[in-house]
Design a protein that fits this description.
By secondary structure, this protein is mainly β. The strands form three sheets. The protein has a 17-stranded parallel beta sheet, with no helix packed on it. The chain has a 17-stranded parallel beta sheet, with no helix packed on it.
């Protein structure tokens, strides 16, 4: 306790313990093992299957993990400003471990298990992160080539940028999500993307709610979001969207921002507004209580159904061999 090591190299079978009150600085761990048991580790480089265990309140700052190496955090351990690259792994085990400001890139992997939290993570260039039951991501940014997979965990305040991917499944929940400039969200069976206190925004992005041909008791969901110059595809099965606003924002990439419903999909209480926006109801899909404002269009395809639609002045409802029930057409609204 109270010791300090600087510039140490741990090769094959090398082993070091950094206990409470001790500091290790600028180490290189190659095929060796470092145990940060309550102490502080700073600037360590792990590679070639080097292994670092951090526990009992241990802290790492500015470490780099690559080339098959792993940093394994448990208990109340903390990793700050970690860079994970080239098949390296940062692993937050059960029970309250935390990673702050991690960069996961170029084949790096971040795994977060029950009770642990990753905050302000940046995923890019092939970086991959996954969360399981009761694991949390806060303030994640997913850049080009980055992937965040929620398989029962939660993510709050995620920003999905160009060619980034957020995949939500099996009880995973994403809240306050922003999908911007070509970002992608894929909600698989049991996944939910929820607007929460700050509605989710699709801006020039694509969201897929995918439950097609997969039997589930419940499907994917997107609640309380805004589709702003993007596309929201709702595929077959038990998928449901509700309380969405579809509006044409600036920097439009697609000609018509849209919600597109496929067979078995359900939309409830959506609002279609502004010029060039529309909701498409395919065969076997249902949209109820839709509000179509000026410049918006709801299109009901053969076999589709629109129920209790309210068409305001300047709004349009187009029915192509589909079914329209109990709608209200306001002054200046049109049914084609």
């Amino acid at each position: 306790a109270g010791g300090k090591a600087s510039g140490t190299v741990l090769g094959p079978f090398g082993y070091m313990v950094v206990s409470s009150g001790s500091v290790a600085q600028d180490m290189v761990v190659t095929l060796g093992n470092e145990d940060v048991a309550g102490g502080v580790d700073s600037g360590t480089f792990l590679s070639s299957r080097g292994f670092q265990a951090v526990a009992y309140g241990g802290v790492t700052i500015g470490d780099t993990i690559g080339w098959g190496a792993m940093s394994f955090l448990s208990g109340t351990a903390l990793a700050s400003d970690t860079v994970v690259t080239s098949t390296g792994t940062l692993y937050l085990n059960h029970g309250g471990a935390r990673a702050i400001d991690a960069d996961i890139e170029s084949g790096g992997l971040l795994v977060v298990l029950q009770g642990s939290v990753a905050s302000d993570t940046d995923l890019k260039n092939g970086g991959y992160a996954s969360a399981y039951v009761q694991a949390d991501f806060e303030g994640t940014t997913i850049e080009s080539g980055g992937v965040l997979a929620l398989g029962g965990g939660s993510a709050n305040g995620t920003v999905v940028e160009t060619d980034g991917w957020l995949v939500v499944s099996n009880g995973g929940v994403a809240t306050n999500t922003i999908i911007d400039a070509g970002g992608h969200v894929l909600a698989l069976p049991g996944g939910a993307v929820d607007g929460g206190d700050r509605p989710g925004v699709v801006s020039t992005g694509i969201v897929l709610l995918a439950d097609k041909d997969i039997p589930q008791l419940y499907g994917s969901a997107w609640t309380g979001g805004t589709v702003d110059s993007g596309y929201l595809y709702v595929l077959a099965g038990h998928d449901k969207v509700s309380n969405l606003v579809v509006s044409a924002g600036s920097d439009t990439v697609y000609d018509k921002p849209a919600v597109i419903l496929y067979s078995g999909a359900v939309a409830q209480s959506d609002t279609i507004e502004a010029d060039g926006t529309y909701q498409y109801i395919g065969s076997g899909a249902l949209a109820s209580a839709t509000m179509v404002l000026s410049g918006g269009t709801e299109f009901v395809e053969s076999g589709g159904m629109a129920s209790a639609t309210h068409i305001s002045a300047g709004g349009y409802e187009t029915v192509s061999r589909g079914t329209l029930e109990s709608g209200l057409i306001g002054n200046g609204g049109s049914l084609l």
